[in-house]
Design brief:
Length: 80
Amino acid sequence: MFTIFSNVRKLSNSVTTIYRSKKLPRESIIDKYKEKNGKVYCTSKLQKAENIEKYGIVKHTFDIINETVETENLANATEI
């Protein structure tokens, strides 16, 4: 079903959002992304009660000269 992941060697950053009425994101998909990178970010806490704000932002700053990435989670955004 997820053969696309077999062609991906490494992901630098993965980001998802919450769609609670459809029970997304699915843990099995998140686990697939973690296998390729280990870091997955979400625009909201997985448990609704933990959210302080209405929304969250995952901010990535890419330095293409030094080949680095800085990640900042704003409001409800978090690493999962």
